[in-house]
Amino acid sequence: MDGQWYDADAGPLVRPYAMTGGRTKPGPHGVRFDLIALVVVDAGGTDPAGESLLGPEHRALLGLCRSETQSVAELAADADLPVGVVRVLLGDLLEAGHVRVSRPVPPARLPDERILREVIEGLRAL
User: What is the pTM assigned to this prediction?
Assistant: First the structure.
């Protein structure tokens, strides 16, 4: 028994660096995907012939995005892949035009909390 491995004990069959071709950064432009960036399948970029050329991990991410818009963190959890791997794979999908990514609003561009409180108070006064 101590010399045999069973499915759960063997660990992942494909190492993360093999899934990304040894790359650690997404795309040639160094696109950065925040954990809360939202990913959606681009309806204009879906080509069944082009998708058939993608790897299984790419297709799995596309399948997860097809059902609903998901964040990078959710995709990593649902695909059971490391976040770094998901970022590289999403970079490939973005370059190929299969997905669109909406980046989160930077904190500096968010409305001031004071203004939001005044709006709430104004609405309550109505």
Answer: 0.67
